[in-house]
Structure formats: structure tokens, C-alpha cells
């Protein structure tokens, strides 16, 4: 069984501000309490393709493993390592992130795809975020009803964490809106 869901959120902030907030949501010390499931984030690779103008970034993200406590007990691990691949096309104003777990794969497969683009109704003022997540519990596939319950619990946890992430992004975007331009720049920001 695979549990899949999609979410859509409109940020009432321009694309440049929202994508800047995306880079900072895990690293801002004020967000540690809200995003307590995030243990560590490290940038592994960053490449700017001069021909296309696209930025390619790969980050390692360590999180507290999702799911109910008894599943973490069975697995014997409560930490999960993920890789996030990001493509930013500043010319077309598109940011795409794909995050997959690289540990616990014999038990759990999670893939999250997120896309930020200008909102068609207000392209210079709003940003639309579309997120697709799929969760698959592997060893329980034979026990379909139990697998469905575990996948549902994992999905609920991911949805809760998504809400927290959006709150952080809104807070950072609002702070950036109020901050003078000289203080706004961040090393991972596309905003100059």
C-alpha cells in the first residue's frame, strides 16, 4: 500500500521572498522549537549552471523518524536520513524540491515533491506552493490493514510538520517584508 496526498498553499508574498524563506526555514535558530523533528541540515553540493542560470543544490537532512513509537521500537532507530534535491530557475521563477529518505528504506519509503511558483492570479505578489507526498511501509505490505494504519499515522505526522513548516515560512517571509534590504540577504538566498 502507498499513502499519498497533495497539499496546496498560497503565500501572500512574492516568489523571491518565499524561496528565500525556504532556504532558511531549517537553519533559523528561532525555528528549532517549531520544527523539532529536524535534527540537522547540511548542504552537500551547490552548482550554478551558467548556461541555463539554474541553481542545483543537494542537502542532507536528518530527522526524527516519522510514525508511531512502536514502529520506531521495531526498527530500532528513531533517526532518518534524507536527501533533498533542489532546482531553482530564477528566470522562469520556479523552485522544485524533491526529498527522499536514504535510511530506513527497507522499512519505509517517503518521497516529497514541492514546487514554488508565482500565483497565476497575482504573479508579482503571491506564491503558490504545491506539495505531493507518498509514504510506503514495506515490511507490512502483507498485513495490508496494519500497513494502512501505519501509513495513515505517518501521513498525519507529515501533514502536521508541513503546517509547522508553512508557519515558519510565513514568519520568515513577513520578517523579510518588514526588514530593510541590507539585512535581508542570506547566504542561501537568491535575493540580492
Automatic annotation (TrEMBL):
Pfam families: PRELI. One of its GO terms (cellular component) is mitochondrial intermembrane space. Coiled coil: none annotated. Residues 182-192 have a biased composition (Basic residues). Residues 172-181 have a biased composition (Basic and acidic residues). PROSITE patterns: PRELI_MSF1. Residues 172-192 are annotated as: Disordered. It comes from the Eukaryota. Residues 2-181 form the PRELI/MSF1 domain. This is PRELI/MSF1 domain-containing protein.
